[in-house]
Amino acid sequence: MTTETLYYKLPKTRFNSKKGKFLKKMKTTNYIKSIITMTLSAVGFALVQSSVKFLGPSVSSWTKAFYRGLFGFVFLIIWLFIIRKKPVFNNKFLLVVRGIAGAFGLVFSFWAIDLVDLSHATIYLY
Question: How far apart are CA 45 and CA 42, in angstroms?
Fold first, then answer.
């Protein structure tokens, strides 16, 4: 049997072309921006989870979720003001359902952080 029969050959696209032409064409600034934003996102998640663990069960999970949501809302308003875009609400009912489900998910994840180790709670979250 030859190698051609064993392996399926992918058509040449911008993602699997020879010598990484896609990476060469990619703007370096966008690549660096994506690395920075992903790193900031990971640091932000770690800070939130660490602060929730630091507060412990003395502060209720609902209170922690409220203040986390309030901080996120203020950050979002500032960000929308900076980029000068108006949010669009197409289906308000689905947005409300998503918000309620997200709030309960956040409260339960904060509750899990209070009950078990931070590493286990993070694994449960994902």
Answer: 5
DSSP-derived secondary structure for 9-53: PPPP-TTT-GGGHHHHHS-HHHHHHHHHHHHHHHHHHHHHHHHHH
Kindly report the CA angle at 85 between 46 and 42, in degrees rounded to 5?
A: 10
Residue 14 CB contacts under 8 Å (≥ 6 apart), including other chains: 21, 22, 25
What letters, b where the CB count within 10 A reaches 16 and e where it falls short, cover 18-50?
Answer: eeeeeeeeeeeeeeeeeeeeeeeeeeeeeebbe
Q: Count the neighbouring beta carbons within 10 Å of the beta carbon of residue 63.
A: 12
Q: How confident is the model over 39-71, as pLDDT tens digits? A: 999 998 889 888 888 988 889 989 999 999 999
Output the six-digit token pair for 120.
Answer: 């286990």
Residue 69 and residue 114 in contact, taking contact as beta carbons nearer than 8 Å: no
Length of the chain equals 126
